[in-house]
Every structure is written in structure tokens, then in C-alpha cells.
Amino acid sequence: MRELGGDRRRRILAAVEARGEARVTDLAAELEVSVVTVRRDVEGLAREGRLRRGHGVAKALVPHVVAKAEHEVGGGAVALVVPERHAYLNEAVHGARSALEEGGMRVVLHIAPRIEGSAEHSIVERVLADDVRGLLIAPRWRTAEAEEADYGWIADMPVPTVVMERRPRPGSVLHATDSVCTDHWYGVHLAVDHLVSLGHKRIVLAARDDSPTARALRAAFAEISGRPEIEESAVILSAPDAGPDHSAPPQDEGELAELVGERGFTGAVLHGDVDALMLVERLAEAGLHVPRDYSVVAYDDVVAALGSTPLTAVAPPKAEVGRVAAEQLLRRLAGGGPPQRVQLMPELKIRGSTKSI
């Protein structure tokens, strides 16, 4: 699936702005295109006045200035802990790295593997023994029970800690810990409101159920789908293995086809991008096509634009989440200010997978 030039340039610009500057060869590798293609895109963005060109690099017009307290943070290392194979968080990692390095901190990235139990615990124990000064962490938290069980552990960290793209339960022991998260309620609102504005009254959410983001999307949809314009709503798993218990039997892959083909659902919000693209392909094999038979809004916008029909998508501000989380940690290391619970707004990218009925 080939990425459209406009979407590719948008991703180049986002990466450069998140990092301050980026090498053309690195961008080409990340986007899986040729160096010549990226160089041409960079030249076009420079002509438009959206970035600056250097020798083999693209530079942001305005470097990020990391907010500090009254005194400098100083040097040292910060540990950044994220789940394995989590493409959604890649841009957040880049945003955090850029801000931390500008703040004079060395970043040490640790990937938590997909294993039973909490891989983050053993990783954090090791990095604390290495005398890191702070911690940015995005725990996997496959279930709500696992999330609750970790609250006390994170709240008792001996170093300044910011929870990234996770929203601890209000009133929990982790409520007063610094956190930065996308406003996923608003993201679901954008998706549903767009479908309703196109005349869709029967809407399904096909979502994962094995992460804090998935649980936030499901809770938001349960509330928002009660609006009077929506005649019927449904919630299903977006992939056979998308449930919290990976040892459970796979769910019925034909459920969405039944909702669209037999029960008259015309709008779908699909989480996340890879599951969304695969669902669209499976329904196409069953003779149901986007947007002829139903409209789709993907949630994540990591690869949604790469489908044979580019998917309309809700795009969380992934790089900005990482940058703001890093800036919060730098403030905490400098001893400044009370804890903050920050929510950043996603945006809707309208492409070819939605139409009016």
C-alpha cells in the first residue's frame, strides 16, 4: 500500500518538529521510501516555509524550548519504558527524546516484552539500580486489574515519574502523579460526530480490549452513542486476539460483516489502524466495500492513510504527548510546581473511507 505524498510530507513535518531536526536518511528508513523521495518532500516543505534544509538534514523552523524551573535541571539519564511492538507510541518516544535531549538529559529506552506478569517491574528495578534521575513510563496494563495493581508501585517510585499516554483512575493513589494523555473521549466524539453528520444512525465500535486506550475508547463510546440521533449502536472486538485474556478462544471474525451486511449498520469506528485495515480487507472479500456499503473512521492514524482506500482517522497528538510528558519530568527534576494531569486534544483527518448516506 502506497502512502500519499501529502500524508508522507505531514509525517515528515511532524517528525522534524518533534525532534528539532532529522536526518533525511533516517526519515527515509522510517517511512520505508527512498532517500530521493524524502529529499524531494523536504525541498517542497522548505519552499513552503514549513521547515529549513541543512546538509542531509531537515530542521524545524522554531526549536522547542523546554520549560524549566528557577534553576537548571542539570545532566543525567532518564529512563523511558514503553511496551514492545507498540507503533502508536513510537512518535511519543521521539517527542520525549527531543525534549529531554534539549534539556540536557540522556535518554535510555527500555522495551517491555509481551510476557505474562509485569515486565515493567523488573525493567524499572534494573534502571533504578543504574542511578537514573527520572522515569517516563507507558505501562502495558492489559486489564483494569493489572492497572489498579500497579498504581501503588508507580506512586512510590523513588525518582520523579511521569505516566505517558495513560490516565490513572480519578481518586486513585496515582491521581496526584504527573501524567500526560490524549483526550480519548474527545477523539471518540470526533469520530461519532463525523459519522452522524453524514447521516449514519447505526454505528458500531470495533475496538481492542487489552489496553488503557482501548478501555477509554469503549467507555467513551458507551456514553456518546446514547445521543438521540443514533438509532442503534454495538461494540465488538476489532481482532480475534484483541481481548484482555489472550488464552481465550478467538472471537468470531464474521461479526462485523453480519452487522454491516445483515443488520444495516453503516458507520464503524475501528481501533487501531492495523486491525482496521485488516477488517476492511476481510469485509471486501465478503463483498462489502468502503465507503460504498459502510463508512469507517480508524482510531490511531499511524498507518490508516496507507489503505487501498485511505481511512478517515482520529489522530492523537502522539509526538506532542511525549514532548509534554518530557517537559513535565524536566520541571519535576528542577523542583518546580505541583503535579499535573494533562490531556491533549486529538484531531480528525478526513480521507476517502467516509461518505454521506
Name the features.
15 strands; six-stranded parallel β-sheet; six-stranded mixed β-sheet; 38% helix; alpha/beta; single chain
Give the structure's gist in a few sentences.
Helices cover 38% and strands 19% of the residues.
Any chance you could write out the topology, listing elements then pairs?
Elements: H1 5-19, E1 21-23, H2 24-31, H3 35-47, E2 52-53, E3 57-59, E4 77-83, H4 90-102, E5 106-112, H5 119-129, E6 134-137, H6 144-155, E7 161-164, E8 178-182, H7 184-197, E9 202-207, H8 212-224, E10 232-237, H9 255-261, E11 267-271, H10 273-285, E12 295-299, E13 312-315, H11 318-333, E14 341-344, E15 347-349
Parallel strand pairs: 4-5, 4-6, 6-7, 7-8, 8-14, 9-10, 9-11, 11-12, 12-13
Antiparallel strand pairs: 1-3, 2-3, 13-15
